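Q: For a teaching session next week I want to show students how multiple molecules come together into a single three-dimensional assembly. I've collected the sequence lines for a complex. Could you give me the predicted structure tokens for the whole thing so I can convert them for display?
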Amino acid sequence: MPVIEFDRVSYTYPSGVKALKDVSFTVEKGEIVVLMGENGSGKTTILKHLNGLLKPTSGRLYVDGLDTSKSTVAQLSAKVGLVFQNAENMFFESTVWDEVAFALRNFGFGEDVVRRRVDWALKFFDLNGYASQSPFTLSGGEKKRLAFAIVLAWSPAIIALDEPTIGQDSLQKEKMLHMVKLLNTQGHTILLASHDVEFVAELRPRIILVSSGKITADGPCEEILSDLEILRKCSIVPPQLVLVMDRLRDLGLSRKILDVPEAVKAISEVIGHKHI
Amino acid sequence: MDIVILSILLVVEASAVAAARVMRLWLRTLRGSSYLAALVFIITFLARTLTGADFFDAIGYAIVYTFRLVVFLTSFSLFFLTTTPEEIALTMSKARIPYEYIFAFVSAVRFTPVVADEMRTIMDAQRSRGLELDRGPFTARLRRMIPILIPLLVNVLRRSYELAEAMEVKCFGATKKRTYLKDLNPKTSDYLILAGSVGLFTITIYMRINGYMPFEAITGIRLVSGM
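A: Of course. Below is the structure for the complete assembly, covering every listed component.
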């Protein structure tokens, strides 16, 4: 049974903007799915539906068997951890430790569980040195990590990340990549919205392309990111490697190559050198 | 009963709203405030009934008070839907108010929707962390506003520092005398409307001080005792 099921979901904002039009897709447990599309295409709107912040105007959405229209945000949030784009603007507690504990207490965990989970989450994100500091004293990257620690602490089955790489340097992105993969191997289903193609290309997820509230394509990373036609339609710049391989297609090279070692191997085979 | 006066005011304002082509926005404001209007109606009705007024009297008061709210809201929406902050600023500078004060006022008006938007985002984020805003007794709900209000305050303060920096970068206050991109040139009709409004306002104040009831004073008919 799929863990997320969008069944012809449409959503119209109170302002009259039709953000989603007849969106249908399912996500199986343990998948990594990346929503890609230009600004305002409906990625965030889809993510906000997962924990019930937005309810479908028409259609149905089931998350882990729950009909979101009939469930509260708190019920759904226990299953879906949503990390906002600017989650670091939402801190209010006096210490980093309490900031992480806040959600756990809301979800009704006992104090000893709270203590264990907070310590674990802070350690996981390399923040245990800051436990008794004010969250406002952290640097940008640390705040971002704290935002993840907050959600990871209650270990939701589904983790939804909105533009996790925005404003991050390459080292942080690298760490983010490892974190997402690690969480996935631990059994978490991951949905993330991003238009950072290079980041997505390294993650190798299933990609759902969203454009003006509709799903334009849905398939494995290699297929979607090498389909220049459809990427242009959704205003997404293809990964550089795909563009290079496209230019070299007369040599009989495939475009569906997303990492450097693979590309080197394919090219050297064609031109007859063992090493370049 | 001043319901007649209120109706006339509402009709005049509604036609002005229609003329300014902001009907849809105005209707949305009214729809948004319908809860408040219903609340005013119920409270007035109960208050009047409990202090011994009979049923029809109480209903009458409730209708009038609700109507007043609607007219009041319409006046405000009419003003803010048709007047941009720049125009308000220009008017104030014509009245020779120092630009620092004008700027403070205009940015307050301009940033209200921004802050409201931010508040919604923060509420969404905290609800995603399991905060339940609409459950439990009133005092508990009030306490649960803290996770909303602190980030909001922090963000507002941060934004004001950023705004101050941006203003200095753009040479705020570098010259004593400012010029404006647009110039306001009041026409005769503007002065007529202004004179009419001030006139009506003066008459109202005069009648209020002397204890006349508007409708009775005009027509001599006394509709409901004590109104």
